Amino acid sequence: MANNYFVVNTASNLIIDVVCTSYSPQGSRIKKFVKASDKALNVYYKWMANNPDALMDIGDLMARSEYTHDQLVNGRSAKVEPKRFNYRAPQVPPLTEDRYATIRDWLRFNPGADEYNLDDAFQTGIVAARAYLAEFSR
Fold this sequence. Notes:
Radius of gyration: 30 Å
Number of strands: 3
Helix content: 40-55%
Oligomer: single chain
Order of helices and strands: EEEHHHHHH
Distance between the termini: 90 Å
Largest sheet: 3 strands, antiparallel
Strand order of the largest sheet: 2-1-3
Strand content: 5-15%
Shape: rod-shaped
C-alpha cells in the first residue's frame, strides 16, 4: 500500500515536495519525511494554488491540519504550538523630502534658472515658480 509523504527541508522547515511510495523513506540531515493524510494534502494543495511562487512551512501546515501536528509530535508530551508565519518584505519608511529646501538647493546649483525651468523641474506652476525665485533671489 502506497503512502504520501511531505518532504521537508530540515534547516528551513519548508515543504519542498510530496512523494508517494510503498516503503517508509529514510530521512537525512538535509530532508525529513512526514506522513501526509488526504486532509493535509488537500490543505497543502489549496495553499499552493493560492501561493504558487512560495513554499509552505510545516508549522503553518500543522496549524491548519491536526493530523500533521499528531504525526510530528508522535505521541510525545511536549508542548508544541503550531504557528502560522506571514513572510513580508522588510518595510522601509519612505524618505520625506522638504520641498522648500529641495527647491532652494536646486536654485543654488542652477543660478541662471528662470520660472519656466523651475516649473519644468518641480511642476510648481509659473506663479509659484516666480514666488520661489523672488524668495531666493534676496
